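Q: Could you write out the predicted structure for this multi-component system? I'm mainly interested in how the pieces pack against one another.
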Amino acid sequence: MKKFIFNILFFLFLLVFINVLISLIVGKAYFKDYSEVSLNYNSYLLADSHGKALKDFMNENGVFNFSCESDSYFDMLRKLRFLIRNGKVIRIILTVDDYTLSRYRERANNLDRSVIYTSPEDFDHKFDFIKDRYLKRYVFFFNPKSRDIMKAKITEKYKQKKGKKDYNKPWNELNEQEKLNQANFRAGSLFQDKYRSEDLVSALEKIISLCQSNKIELIGIKFPSSHYYYSLIRGKSFNADSLVKNKGFRVFDFTTIYRNNDDYFHDADHLNDLGAKYLSDTLLKSIEK
Amino acid sequence: MLFNSLEFGTFLPLVFLLYWFVVNKNLKAQNVLLLLASYFFYGWWDWRFLLLLILISILNYFWGIMIDKNEIIRKRKTWFITGVIINIGILGVFKYYNFFIDSFIDLVSLIGYNLPKSTMKIILPLGISFYTFLSLSYIIDIYRKSLSANRNIIEVLLTLSFFPIILAGPIQRPSSLLTQIGEKRIFNYDQAVDGLRQILWGLFMKIALADNLAPYTDEFFPHFSDYSGSTLLLGAIFYAVQIYTDFSGYSNIAIGTAKLFGFKLMHNFNYPYFSKNIAEFWKKWHISLTTWFRDYLFLPISFAISWKIKKERVIFIKTDFFIYIMASILTWSLIGLWHGANYTFIIWGMIHGLFLIIYQWQSKPRKRLLKNLGIKNTHSLVVIIDTIVTLIIVLTAWIFFKADNVSHALNYLSAIFSRSIFAIPVFSRRSHAMLILFFVILFFIIEWTGREKEYVLTDLELKWSKPLRWMFYFVIILGIYFLGNFNETIEFIYFKF
C-alpha cells in the first residue's frame, strides 16, 4: 500500500508540475483583462470582439464597454446578472449580430472566464460553482481553452525563434483577393454550422426576460461589416435580432452603413479606431432619438 | 454521478482512502462504506430514485430468503414468480409505460377510435435495466438452487447496488459478486495499478474518442437529408465507433474502479469489431448482457420447447434448428426491447437474431463449399471478407439503434445508397474530423495489437520499463487533454437504457 500511495503521490506531483508549466504558459493575462469592469455606469455594452473594437469611446457618454472577444450570450447573461446584483444598470446595448446564435459561438465562448462574475446562486449545485469558479481556473486540465492558448503561445514562440514575425497589413492596404480571402475565412468560421444553438437561444431569452423583470432598457445592435464580408453572409442569419425585436425592444442595424468605406475597418468584420469612433457617435445619437 | 466528471474524480479518491485506511481492518465496515458510497453515487443524480433502488434491493433480499427457506415446490415457485413479476413490473412501469400506452393509442386509432395522447410521462430511472436484471438473476439463481439466499442484508444490498456497476453494468452474476463481498479483501498493488490503468484507458476512449464523434453523429442523423450518401455512411461508421468507445470505455472504468477496491468484475467487451461472424460478435459485445439472456432466457426456452416437441422435423425444418429459430426470435426481440421502449430497438435486435439464424443455417453448407473449393476457413481473404460482411450487418443494425423511429432509419439507409455515395464526404469541421479519424484508426491499430488481452494495456509492466510506462501514461493524459471534447459533459450512451 505504501508503494502504491508513494507512486500515486509522485505521479500527481508530476501532474502538478505540468499544470504549473501550463499555467506559466497560459499566464495571468488571459484572466486579468476580463476582470476589468466599472460599476459607476448606468449603461453597458455587451458584445464580443465587434463591441470590443469600440474601446472606451462611449465612456464619457455614460456607456461602459463590457465587451470581450468571443463573449457569447452565456457570458453576457452572467455579466448582466452581476451588474444587476452589484450596480445600477438602466440600459443594456446588446449585440444581435447574425452569427451570435451560431453553434460556433456556443463552442467558442468565455465560460471559463465569465465565471468570475457568477455567484453560488447562479448554479444548481454549490459544487458546480466551486468546480467552475476555482478548479477550472487553477487546474488547467479542467480548462480546455488553456490548451488552445498554449498551442497559440507555442506557435508564437516558434515563429519568434525562427525570426518570423506576423505582420497584418491594414484592411485598406489589402488587395481585392486578400480581402476576399479574409472575409471568406471569417464568414466560413462563423457560419460553419447550419443550425443555430438552442442553448444560446435560451440564454438570450433569459437576458431579455431579466431586462424586462428589472425594467432595464434593452437595445439590440448589429455591427458594421465590410462589403466583402457582407456579400458572403447576406441572407444568412440565426435571427437573434428578431428575438429582441419581437419583445418590443429597439434594434439598430448598422451592418451596411460603412460597406463602401474600407478605411473604417481593421479587418473583414471589425472596425478600426476611426470606424469605432464614428460608430460610437452614431450609436449614441440613435439611442437619444 | 458520471465517471467522466469532476465529481467522480473527487468522490473516488475519498472513498478509496476511507476504504483502505479508515475501515480497512473490518470487512463489515468496508461493506457499509461501499454501500453508503454506492447510494451517494446513485443519489447524486436524483435521490428520489435512490429510494426506488433501495426498495427493489430490500424486496429482493426478502424474496431471496422466502424462496430459499421454502422447501415445498409449489410455495417456492409462487414466491419466485411473484418476485419475477414484481421486478419486471417495476421495470415495465418505469421503462415501458409510455411506449405501451402510446402504441395502444396508435393501434386503436387504426380502427377509428381516437384516444387522447397520455400526458403522464414517466421519468426513466438511471440504470434501472441493469439493477433489475441483477436482482432478477439473484432470485432466479436462488430458485435454481445455484445460490443460497444471503441473510446478511448489507451484503445483498451492496451486491445489488455496487457503485461501479449500478448505472450501466457490466451486469454481474450475484454469486460471483456476493462471494467477493463476503470475503476479506487484501490490498493488491498490481491489481490496483491495473485498475488505474484501465480507468485511464477507459477515459481516453470516452473523452478523446466517443465524445469527439458525438457532435458528428448528432448532426448527421437528425439532418440526414442535407448530406451526401458518402457522408452518411461515414456518419454510421462514426456512430459504430462512438457507441463502442463510449460503452467499452465505460466498462473499462467500471472494471478498473472495482479493481481499486479489490473486486474482479466480469469482462464486457472483447474487441468485437474484429469478429469474423455475427455469432462471434455477440460473444464479444456486451458479454454480460448476452450471457444473461443466454442463461436465463435462451437456454430455458430452448429446453422448454424441446420437451414439448418429440418429432424430428417441424414444418420441414429439423427440430433442433426450429427450436433455435424460435428461441432466437424471442430472445433477440427482448434484447432489443431491453435497450429501450422503441420499435427501432426491437428491429435492431431482430436484425441480429435473423443473421444469427442465417449464420447457423449456412455454417455446415459453407464448410462443405469451402472444402470442395480447397479453401481454408482461416485463409486471410476469407477472414477479411467475413469480417467486412459482419461489420456491414452490425453497421446496418446500428442505424436502427440510433434512429428516432423506423422510417427515420429506413430513410437514412436509402439516403446512404443514393448516387451521392460516391461523392467526397462533406463536413462542417473538416480538419477536426480528419484529426479524429486519424486517432480512431490509430486506436483500432492499438486494439488489434492487444486483441488477445483483457484490455489493450493489460500486463504493460511485463513489457515496458517504469519510465517508459509512465511516459506513456502522460501521453494518454495529454492526449485526453488535447483531444478531449470538454465543451460539455456528454453522458454515456448506455445510461439511457
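A: Regarding packing and overall arrangement: Chain A has 13 helices and five strands.
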